[in-house]
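Question (not urgent): is this output format expected?
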Amino acid sequence: MAPNGTTNGKSTNDHDYVLGRDFLASCRLNLQHYLMVEDLGYHVHPTITIKPGMKVADVATGTGVWMIDLAPKHPDVSFHGFDIDLAQAPNPEWLPENAKLDVLDLLKPVPEELVGQFDYVHVRLLMYVIREDPTPILENLIKLLKPGGVLQWVDMDHPTHRFDKARPEYSTKYLELAGTWPSTLATEDNRMDPKWVGKLASYYKRQGLQVLADDHKYRDKYHLGYYCEAAFMAWEEFKSKMSDEHAAQYDEILKKARQEMEQAKRGISINMEIRVVVGRKPE
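Got this back:
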């Protein structure tokens, strides 16, 4: 979810999104979803209990996979997925009966008919959407909540990134460049090095939410090979939004990083903390 615009004179799609919305991008999102659920051990944070009759909003729903996973398991709960662009979402005819999708731009005022309508709002992976301050989007997410409703925000904390090796002798020189080089391109997009995720709980408190959880953990080593595959897919999407000059430079870095992966028999990977923050709106 992001406003319209361009990056370095080159359109980043209709909504100035630094990643892609094609079939490969959808595959990446679905892979990231299942890896994240495996690493966290849940869809819904343990502090939250889904009860019959609840209304749940899945904001920045993307492919809708989080909502579609849960809806059949909770047939007495209403699920409503929102995104600024539903190009990656399934055909409405293939949604569970208790789920639906609608367009919502989080950077615009929340439509009156949605204010205070949801018991539980879930949002995820806005790290490359928010430029510096999550407050405007957080305010809108809170507006969706009923009094006493809960907000679960799951994101990747980029400043915590590191490069893990199955063996100490494996090289990660070019993998490190692949993971960090886009953030050096301030002229490309300052969202490439988001620093707000680790402070999300403090933003909750400023908005009057009671923080129920502020969890963070690195990905388990068992999934790092798969996670690095998803990272390469994202890096290719980044490349497609760069200027021609920078894209050519980055392409060479990615080629060498893939060679390192092969030489290490897929035993190297970028890793960073998953952060989950849960807050309750006052009654």
